[in-house]
Amino acid sequence: MKTRRDFLKLASLAPFATAFPLLGEAATPFGGKFVVTVQARGAWDVTCFCDPKENQRGEPAITAWSTNNETQTSGNIKYAPFANNEAFFKKYADRMLVINGVDSLTNSHSIGETVNWSGRTALGYPTLTAMYSAAYAPNLPMSYVTFGGFNRTENLVRATQLGWSVNSIGELLRPNYANDRPMIKSELWSLVKQLHKNDTQALIESAPLTAGNRSAREAYLSSLKNMDPLSEFAEMLPADDEWEPNGMNGNFKQQAQFTIAAFKAGVSATADLSQGGFDSHEDNDLEQTTNLNELTEGIDYLWEAAEEAGIADRLLVIVGSDFSRTPYYNSAQGKDHWSVGSYIIMEKGKRYTNRYVDGSDEGQNAVKIDPATLKRSTFGTKLVTSHVHTALREYLGLDNKALVSSFPFNDDQRFSFFI
């Protein structure tokens, strides 16, 4: 097997070559879509992003940018002339479905994260990414990777939780190595692993175990079986000085680096990426500018890396937040919590993209939408998060999976987002 340095010698000088030395070498055995959620934690201000709002005469100012500017459009997508939005929306409008006016039904951060990423306000439902991995790729070594935020699995599949430890994961995935050198000779190490596999398998099959002990033993056995492919994957990860630098509010680009490498290597199928810092109760525009810049740069990096890896046409990215921010400024020029927010769903080369669902009025209140036409209608329905999750489940073919039937939504309407 070639070492990581051998791959680096053979890699091209493309921008992501050193970050992804596996490119062009490894073929993933998983043939489905790769699903990524991007959790903008703290509650973004969508009036300064994908649901632009202009000030109304006689009403408190909703956006400072609209004092001397107006809403911009790229393709069919409206956006605010704020931060680095112009470059982002011009580049990716044709990959976007923007769904505005989605009511989270809460102003609580914890409940907002729960409802936006599971589809309901109460705990007990897994993330969409966990369900997808459990349905389509349960046996991949790190099928579901998460970097923070809401990541409940409800025991459908194991989650690999990384957080800030991205650049040290290579050491954890190679337990027989220290300072890039093996501690035990490979022949002896193989015997040690086999002994542990045999003993664990025998215990599972012969001894009466409680449910918790059985689950722990089975997880350990699975980790032993997956040790070799993960060790090989670890050798291909960037060296310490090859990881992207941290941002002001997270390590988004490192998360994207790791995620695309894991997808390409065939060890993962889904990932939850996370960036904090959006809770702008003071100096809203300054805080949102910094964080939206970091967010859009990170999403751009994710897509560029996927292109370089040759998997961009299999990537589905779902971007959202806890909820949004009030349609007015407080006394500290900040904005507080507002339940009506947005999702952006991104995919390359699909008919449903370059579409904008205008689900909120000029005061950022949810309005009724016709489920078939996705246009405003007095006979329509106001959007809630479960409508978006139901549509995503159907689009991903999860609605007919037995494991998903335990987590139903009771929506009366089905929205045709993906037609």
Q: Which CATH class of the domain at 4-24 and 31-84 and 115-129 and 150-165 and 241-357 and 395-406 applies here?
A: Alpha Beta
Please give the largest β-sheet. 8 strands, mixed
Succession of helices and strands: HEEEHEHHEEHEEHHHHEHEEEEEEEH
Helix and strand content put the structural class at alpha/beta
Which whole number gives the mean pLDDT?
A: 87
Count of alpha/pi helices: 11
Estimate what percentage of residues fall within beta strands. Answer: 15-25%
- Runs in which pLDDT lies below 50 for 5 or more consecutive residues are 1-28
The Rg value, from CA coordinates, equals 23 Å
Helix fraction by DSSP (H/I, runs of at least 4): 25-40%
How is the largest sheet built, in terms of strand order?
6-5-9-1-10-13-4-14
Principal-axes shape call: globular
What report would you give on this structure?
The protein has a domain at 4-24 and 31-84 and 115-129 and 150-165 and 241-357 and 395-406: Alkaline Phosphatase, subunit A, CATH 3.40.720. It has eleven helices and 16 strands. The chain has helices at 4-10, 85-92, 109-118, 128-136, 169-172, 186-206, 211-225, 227-235, 252-265, 284-309, 385-395, and strands at residues 34-40, 72-74, 77-79, 96-103, 144-146, 159-161, 177-178, 181-182, 270-275, 315-321, 324-325, 337-338, 340-347, 355-357, 368-369, 381-382. An eight-stranded mixed sheet has the order 6-5-9-1-10-13-4-14, sandwiched between helices. It has a two-stranded antiparallel sheet with strand order 2-3. β2 (72-74) and β3 form a beta hairpin. The longest helix has 26 residues, at 284-309. The protein is globular, with a radius of gyration of 23 Å. The relative contact order is 0.21.
